[in-house]
Design goal:
Among the domains are: about 1-110 and about 565-635, no CATH class; about 150-205 and about 470-530, no CATH class; about 245-320 and about 340-410; about 650-775, P-loop containing nucleotide triphosphate hydrolases (Rossmann fold), CATH 3.40.50. The chain is built from 19 helices and 7 strands. Helix 1 runs antiparallel to helix 15 (about 575-635), helix 2 (about 50-115) packs across helix 13 and helix 16 crosses helix 17 (about 715-735). The chain starts with a helix and ends with a strand. The chain has a 3-stranded antiparallel sheet. The protein has a two-stranded parallel sheet with strand order 4-5. About 75% of the residues lie in helices and about 5% in strands. It has about 800 residues and is mostly helical. The relative contact order is 0.12. It comes from Streptomyces ipomoeae 91-03.
């Protein structure tokens, strides 16, 4: 119960500390959010301290109140700064407008002065624009004259180029003479069409003759190749037939060797199994020996443990005794003094584990022997199949057999290829003989065709010699005539064009002179000089329009009433107004920033305060549970202030048992002390903070006073301890349902007793021998040797100690 309460107290304390740690973390966050504005110091508390929740909530309330107050102050400051900034902006706008009007008036005066300076140049530009407008009536005639002059110049140049390309015989001819010569050249060109067809046919004949010569050379190559190949035919056929016969013999040999491979492989495999099983037999024999030794060791260990268990069987039987139930040995329902287990006691579980280990070892040995028999049988079978021939020798024979078999298979594999090559060679022989016959037939036909081509070629060459004249060919002659006709035609056209453009130029000059006179110009050159191109006209018009616009704008500005009024005022101080407005804007920004910070601070503190309040409410049941469990744990552990005697719950429970033991021990002690001493339980509180509740005092009947057991003498302490042991045995016997202790051993302590006390103690021990109970005394006191007749004496010797029995 104490342990469980302590665990519950630690668990509850851990939960409370964890919650307090989170609460303190929220407090630190609130302190960071409050910054330097909080006038209240953070309480110095740690997780688990009493009053932490109340202190935290109080500090949070003060921080929230301070934050709200500062938010109100910041709000008022922001409103004041906004009003000041608006007033400064209005003043700045008025100053800017005044400055703008003053600049506008000054600029208008400057523009008027510049217009006055440029007045003379403006009049000259206006007069030039007037002359340009008059010259525009002459512009079409000027353009027509320029176009006529350009056409005449180009036509004259074309005529000169065309005449330069003509032969000298036609260089001075007029347009009509050039046209007549061109018609004659075209007529002669038409008469050469028949000669052109004959020339193309002659070209075809030459090409066909060349093709016949090429075919003749190809057929000669075919005939030579066929004759050479057919001359080697018998030799090739004999070689292929020999390859076929050799491959057939190799196939027969491979079939014979394949029959021998199976038995040889089986015998080699049996020899390898024989060697492997021989090694496995040795390993199996060694394993059987190891497992047999291990089984013997396990059996000896089991027998040793069994012997030890038989020696301590009384203690094992006593452990199973239950109050009120009969003993498995004697049948008694009272068990006053059950046997106790000694050091090194072997229980049934230990013995059974040893037995199981022995059985497993024996099973492993049996399994190993069985496997050894199986391996030996397999070894005998493999030896019978393989014989006594060494494995290496069988492997060499098998390798030689495989080599011969592989060689025979390689030789047999060429059978199909050799047969196919023979059939292919026969087909090639037939093809070459047919090609030889076809080449002979083509040669006879080619000779006939060659004779016909030669006759036709002679007739065409005579006709072409007459048609081409001095030219290399008819085509060259036709090209000469075609070029001459083209040049003559081009020169005639160019001469006619030059005559036409000369007449048009003369007409354009007359019309231009008439148009210039009607426009008021003395000469056409004067009208041309007054004309303006598009860019110059646009530029001049733009300058004239700009002058008029600028003059009108200046007059309008100077006529404005507000501008004139502003010009009469003192110069506007814009820099001062801007500085004042900028300062007011900065003050407003600072006020807004302060208000934002105060609002964020207030919001964050409200959020964290609500979170802390929720944490306190959540921790309240845990804290109450912790306080209740802590009080109970302290009370049961004897550390609470309510536990005046500092008595633990365990001690409180044992105190009741100790009273029973003291009462039972008093019965023995009064007899041993001749009625002088009585043992009583004491729950007095001891000094120096020690635990209380399990103390013992003796009541001395001679003095009538109660005193501590530490005041007893050595002999008195011995028989008091003996009485307590006997009393404890009686109480345990009663609690265990009457299980009796049949054997009791008492070690030393008798040497400190006087004779009378020793007699009384021995009388008490004799009374314990009721109902065949055995009492053993271990002592070196000589007087006990005379009083106790049944003895086991331990005698020391050089070879060790021996035990001998004396008396009965």
């Amino acid at each position: 119960v104490e342990k469980r309460l302590a665990e519950r107290r630690r668990a509850a304390e851990a939960q409370v500390r964890e919650g307090d740690a989170e609460l303190l973390a929220d407090v630190h966050r609130m302190q960071q959010a409050a910054g330097d504005t909080s006038a209240m110091e953070l309480p110095e508390l740690t997780p688990g301290d009493p009053g932490l929740a109340e202190a935290v909530l109080g500090w949070a309330a003060v921080a929230r109140s301070t934050a709200r107050e500062q938010l109100t102050i910041a709000h008022c400051a922001r409103a004041t700064a906004a009003s000041a900034q608006a007033a400064a902006e209005r003043v700045l706008d008025d100053v800017r407008e005044t400055a703008r009007l003053q600049r506008r008036f000054a600029q208008a005066r400057e523009r008027a002065a510049r217009l006055e300076e440029r007045a003379e140049a403006h009049e000259e530009e206006r007069a030039r624009m007037e002359r340009a407008r008059k010259a525009e009536a002459v512009a079409p005639a000027l353009q027509l004259r320029d176009e006529a002059e350009t056409e005449h110049r180009e036509a004259s140049a074309d005529e000169a180029r065309a005449r330069a390309a003509l032969p000298h015989s036609h260089a001075d001819a007029g347009a009509a003479g050039l046209a007549t010569a061109a018609r004659k050249a075209a007529e002669e060109l038409g008469g050469l069409e028949s000669a052109r067809r004959a020339e193309r046919r002659l070209t075809e004949l030459v090409a066909e003759r060349a093709e016949l010569d090429h075919e003749e050379r190809s057929d000669e190559d075919v005939l030579q190749d066929a004759e050479g190949w057919l001359a080697e035919w018998e030799t090739t056929r004999a070689a292929l037939q020999s390859r076929i016969e050799a491959a057939q013999e190799a196939a027969t040999r491979a079939e014979q060797l394949a029959v021998q491979r199976g038995p040889a492989e089986k015998r080699l495999g049996a020899a390898r199994r024989r060697d492997q099983l021989g090694r496995g037999t040795e390993e199996a024999q060694a394993r059987v020996l190891r497992l047999a030794e291990r089984a013997v060791e396990a059996r000896d260990h089991w027998l040793d443990l069994k012997e030890q268990r038989l020696k301590g069987i009384a203690a094992e039987l006593a452990a199973g005794l239950v109050d009120g139930e009969p003993c498995a040995v004697c049948g008694g329902t009272e068990h006053p003094a059950p046997a106790q287990k000694v050091a090194g006691h072997v229980d049934r579980e230990t013995e059974e584990r040893a037995l199981a280990a022995y059985q497993r070892a024996d099973e492993e040995r049996t399994e190993a022997e069985r496997r050894l028999g199986v391996v030996r049988q397999a070894l005998a079978a493999a030896s019978a199949e393989a014989g006594d021939t060494p494995t290496d020798r069988l492997a060499d024979e098998m390798a030689e057999l495989e080599r011969a078999y592989a060689e025979a298979r390689r030789g047999a594999s060429g059978l199909h290829l050799a047969q196919e090559e023979l059939r292919s060679a026969e087909r090639e022989r037939e093809r070459r003989m047919a090609a030889q016959q076809e080449a002979v037939v083509r040669a006879a036909s080619r000779n006939t065709r060659r004779d016909a081509l030669e006759r036709e070629r002679g007739a065409l060459e005579g006709e072409l010699a007459q048609a081409r004249g001095d030219a290399e060919s008819v085509a060259a002659r036709a090209e000469q005539l075609e070029r001459l006709a083209g040049l003559l035609t081009e020169a005639a056209d160019a001469a006619r064009a030059a005559d036409d453009t000369a007449q048009r130029l003369k007409d354009a000059d007359a019309r231009l002179a008439d148009a210039a006179f009607r426009a008021g110009f003395d000469t056409p050159q004067a009208a041309a000089a007054a004309l303006l191109d598009d860019d110059a006209h646009r530029d001049l018009q733009r300058r004239l329009d700009a002058w008029q616009s600028e003059e009108a704008a200046v007059r309008a500005v100077l006529a404005e009433a507000d501008t004139a009024t502003a010009a009469q005022q003192p110069p506007a101080d814009l820099a001062t107004a801007e500085r004042d407005a900028e300062a007011a804007s900065r003050q407003l920004q600072d006020a807004v920033s302060a208000w934002d910070a105060a609002e964020r601070r207030r919001t964050e503190l409200d959020r964290l305060s609500a979170r802390a309040t929720a944490s306190v409410r959540r921790l309240a049941p845990l804290r109450e549970e912790y306080d209740r469990v802590a009080r109970m744990a302290g009370l049961t552990a004897g550390t609470a202030a309510d536990n005046e005697r500092r008595m633990r719950l365990e001690a409180y429970v044992l105190a009741a048992r100790l009273e029973q033991v003291a009462a039972a021990a008093t019965v023995r002690l009064q007899r041993m002390s001749s009625g002088r001493y009585t043992l009583v339980h004491s729950d007095d509180r001891v000094g120096r903070g020690a635990r209380s509740g399990l103390g013992l005092h003796v009541v001395d009947a001679w003095t009538g006073r109660e005193r501590d057991t530490a005041t007893l003498s050595g002999g008195e302490t011995f028989f008091a301890s003996l009485a307590l042991a006997l009393g404890l045995a009686d109480v345990v016997t009663d609690e265990a349902g009457g299980v009796r202790l049949d054997t009791l051993f008492i070690d030393e302590g008798f040497g400190s007793l006087d004779d009378q006390t020793l007699d009384e103690v021995l009388d008490v021990l004799d009374s314990l021998r009721e109902r065949d109970r055995s009492v053993g005394i271990v002592s070196h006191v000589a007087d006990l040797r005379r009083r106790i007749h049944a003895q086991l004496e331990v005698v020391k010797g050089r070879s060790g100690s021996t035990v001998r029995q004396r008396g009965r």
